[in-house]
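User: Teach me something about this protein's shape.
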Amino acid sequence: MRSGLLTLAVFAAVALILGPMRPAQALIFDPNVSRCENPNPDVRILGCTALIQSGQETDKSLAASFNNRGMAYNEKGEFNLAIADFDQAIRLTPDDAYAFYNRGNAHVGSNQYDLAIADFDQAIRLKPDYTDAFNNRGNAYNNNGQYDLAIADLDHAILLKPDYAFAFNNRGNAYYDKGQYDRAIADFDHAILLQPELATAFNSRGSAHFYKGQYDLAIADLSQAIELKPGYVNALNSRCFVRAVVGQQFDLALADCNTSLGINANDADSLDTRGFVYFRAGHYARAIEDCSAALALDPKLATSLYIRGLAKQKTGDSAGGAADVAAAIGLAPTIVKEYERYGVARD
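Assistant: First, the predicted structure itself:
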């Protein structure tokens, strides 16, 4: 799989604006008001659009309609439409911390972390005790590789809300990304203590145990993540990889990867990991096939290039194998040492 197991941040939810910002008469008579607050994003878009087009909204209620429709677009992954709606909400109510916060979340969804951080900055200026904004800005900093700033924000979120399981999980991710696995595990422990059903914390703690060479603990945590969240592709893929590294559970590893690919047949990470399993099991042609499929989806996936190169060499294609290995090293200079740690050495 990609260089290392994956941890996942937990972003706090966007902020829905409910009825009190609307005129009392509208709350009583207009069914689109309730539609604009409906949990179903498609219903919400219809209701909010009708209110926006009605020409009868005050600035505050119109901003609420743009905000709620933007949230619906965000939930559907239509981030550009969401951002456009949050732009309108901010234009109408420039002192609304929630609108900046929501636009920040949409920028996160589109991987625009600098813009997200700027919006969370403004949300915090307007609402200095905005715990969720500190949490989400910390995650954005972490995604941007600014680990110390991430930890500082998550420290502050925990100071504001000492029982905030998401913030402990996310601070654990930042420590994990810094390579401080013991501190990461301590935070994941605390997140699980606060919220025992938080599957992502088990997944992340399993990844940290893996990097400490504690493979049995890693498999136990990943298994618990899957039990809590059946069909958890990231945890299935990670458990597949750990079992392949252990080198004695190839059938179980393949079952995990196959389950993951049954959920998402175009998941490059799962194809990459299954290719590694086949390589470790000595099925080199199948390893080449899966790694090639992964590379078709992600041509710069260094792990697939490396394993495909080694598999080609095992099947007699020395030149093709050497080319793949060289390309992998160009993308990830430490990949040879990394895979030596997993029990795979170059010939």
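Now, about its shape. The two ends are 21 Å apart (CA to CA). The chain has 20 helices and no strands. If you'd like, I can walk through any region in more detail.
User: That's plenty for now, thanks!
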